[in-house]
Design a protein that fits this description.
By secondary structure, this protein is α+β, with helices and mostly antiparallel strands. The protein folds into four domains: about 35 residues; about 170 residues, Beta Barrel (Elongation Factor Tu (Ef-tu), domain 3); about 90 residues, RNA polymerase II/Efflux pump adaptor protein, barrel-sandwich hybrid domain (OB fold (Dihydrolipoamide Acetyltransferase, E2P)), CATH 2.40.50; about 180 residues, Helix Hairpins. Helices cover about 35% and strands about 25% of the residues. The chain contains six helices and 24 strands. The strands form five sheets. A six-stranded antiparallel β-barrel has the order 2-13-17-15-14-18. Strands 1, 19, 20, 21 and 24 form a five-stranded antiparallel sheet that branches. Helix 2 crosses helix 5 and helix 3 runs antiparallel to helix 5. It is elongated and about 170 Å long.
Length: about 575
């Protein structure tokens, strides 16, 4: 493509521009570079998706020290179940040398594992606990009961009030009837007294059978006749017959005051009305008393129901407040038991003694069935066999810790050590790891070791042990780790500085992509893929283990694809 440049500057400026353009064009021609403004930029650097090893490492520096003799033993006292080597055997790193009986340790591990499962179940129960929901439901039910109780008490008191009002009305009504009866009695008594107290006697039919005579008989006197008897005691006045104005003694002559005849009934009416008033008043008192009792009991029932609401509210608040602490406490118990399980598993693993380095078995002190422990009690084996050396049966000297047979003066080979490796042509490195890195280091892990004095040399090694306690180095807690080299080299010398890289996690022969090609945004992992035509396309993939230089590809990419590498990463 040809571009025409125009300028309003002076001719000299235009000349200088043209000269520079011609110079640039000449240089491009000489160097064989494409001319024109359409030159493509150089392609970006790329890498390949390929099968490789992905590893995580932690590193530290230390110094080499030569190994001349390696004393080996079990970390715990136990009964020998197997001795897999003989004196004089050549062993390689990781080879099994002996085993202890692990029955009791496995029982402990199983018990702790059961406790861990139980604590995990309790943690799951705490996480899914329904106490809060149950207490919330109880609170709502308690509030509903308060409403029901108040309505029930109100209805009971309303019924009691109605009964009291009815009782009052009945007392008033019957009192009025009582007053009327007394007035009637008084009126009849006054009327009877005014008429001489003679009851009314209706006339008898004239049939020649007179009911009495005017003289000589019991009824001949007005003062003591039947009328006066009725006034004094109407019940004893004798038989009466119904007349126009009321009952009258049989055999009368139709004279007298009927009011006198009513006095007895009036007295009964007064007594009956009075008794009814007393009954009504007793009913009123009972109704009032019931109303008071029901009111008191109702108030107690309402207060009890309200107290239940307060209790349910407190239970709900306590459940809400305690739930996170209960979960944290249970999670801590799970972590504690899990740590014990890890320790118990380590104890089981440590019943297998492996060779940390290559070497020759120089000493074995122990026969299958004996207990390996710091004190005596093991036997020195003869070279090449599993039989003890005659005369050396683990007798302890009374004057020193040297084991042997005082009677013959023979000394026990290797002292108290269970196995001794000798003629080990290798080195070890003791290095301090910062505490977060030391937590990832464990015995028997693979190690890559480089040396400042020999930059082109890398040797493999094995973690032998990690110090159980830390050391303060420049105000940072570090743990010393002993690494044994599995390979040697004539150029290695005691005291040389070594860089130790412990492989803490590794997967082999997996599909990988360079770390510099990977881009991460949130949980999405992508790379830019370049096809054979140079077209770039961003593709996401599922990443696995992220190593120091490469990332494991689980899915989303294919072997052989070209990916763009980020520069400066």
């Amino acid at each position: 493509m040809t571009r025409i440049f125009t300028s309003s500057s002076t001719p000299s400026a235009a000349w200088r521009f043209s000269a520079r353009a011609l110079l640039a064009l000449g240089l491009a021609t000489v160097l064989g570079a494409p001319t024109g403004c359409g030159s493509a930029p150089p392609p970006p650097p790329t890498g390949r998706v390929e099968r490789s090893t992905v590893a995580n490492q932690v590193s530290a520096s230390g110094s080499l020290s030569a190994i001349r003799e390696q004393n080996l033993g079990f970390p715990m006292t136990g009964q020998l179940r197997e001795v897999a080597v003989k004196v004089g055997d050549r062993v390689s790193p990781g080879q099994i040398l002996a085993r202890q009986d692990d029955f009791l340790l496995r029982q402990t591990l199983n018990q702790l594992q059961g406790q861990l499962n139980s604590q995990r179940a309790l943690l799951s129960e705490a996480l899914n606990d329904t106490t809060v929901h149950g207490d919330q439901a109880s609170l709502e039910e308690a509030r509903r009961i308060v409403d029901v109780t108040e309505k029930s008490v109100d209805a009971e008191l309303a019924s009691d009030a109605s009964a009291v009002r009815s009782a009052h009305k009945q007392v008033d009504l019957d009192s009025y009837t009582f007053d009327q009866a007394r007035e009637q009695l008084h009126a009849d008594q006054v009327s009877c007294s005014a008429s001489g107290g003679v009851p009314y006697t209706p006339p008898q039919p004239s049939n020649g059978l007179a009911g009495g005579s005017t003289s000589g008989g019991p009824n001949s006197s007005i003062g003591v006749g039947p009328a006066q008897a009725v006034v004094d005691n109407p019940v004893k006045a004798g038989p009466v017959s119904a007349g126009v104005n009321g009952p009258s003694p049989v055999g009368g002559n139709g004279n007298g005051n009927p009011a006198c005849n009513r006095i007895a009934q009036d007295q009964k009416n007064v007594a009956s009305a009075h008794q009814q008033v007393l009954t009504d008043k007793a009913t009123l008192v009972a109704d009032v008393q019931k109303q008071n009792v029901d009111r008191t009991q109702g108030l107690v029932s309402i207060e009890n129901a309200r107290q239940n609401v307060i209790t349910a509210q407190n239970a709900l608040q306590a459940a809400i407040a305690n739930r996170p602490f209960t979960i944290d406490q249970q999670a801590a118990l799970v972590a504690s038991i899990a740590a014990q399980v890890s320790g118990a598993q380590r104890n089981v693993d440590n019943t297998i003694l492996r060779a940390p380095v290559s070497g020759t078995v120089a000493v074995i002190n122990g026969v299958v069935g004996e207990y390996v422990q710091p004190s005596t009690g093991t036997s020195a084996l003869a070279p090449g066999v599993h039989a003890p050396i005659p005369g050396l049966n683990g007798v302890t000297s009374s004057t020193s810790s040297t084991l042997g047979n005082p009677a013959t003066g023979a000394q026990r080979p290797g002292g108290t050590q269970f196995i001794v490796l000798d003629n080990v042509n290798s080195f070890r490195v003791v290095v301090p790891f910062e505490e977060s890195d030391a937590a990832k280091v464990a015995p028997n892990q693979k190690v890559n070791v480089t040396f400042d004095a020999i930059p082109d040399l890398t040797r493999t090694g094995t973690v032998l042990t990690v110090a159980p306690s830390g050391a303060d180095i420049s105000s940072v807690i570090n743990y010393y780790v002993t690494v044994v080299l599995n390979e040697t080299d004539p150029r290695l010398k005691d005291g040389q500085t070594a860089q130790v890289r412990v492989v803490t996690n590794q997967v082999d022969n997996v599909l990988t992509v360079p770390n510099s090609a990977v881009r991460r945004r949130g949980e999405q992992t992508t790379v830019t893929v370049v096809d054979p035509n140079g077209t770039q396309e961003q593709m996401s993939f599922q990443a696995g283990l992220v190593g120091d230089t490469r990332t494991q590809v689980i899915s989303g990419l294919s072997e052989g694809q070209q990916v763009v590498l980020r520069q400066g990463v």
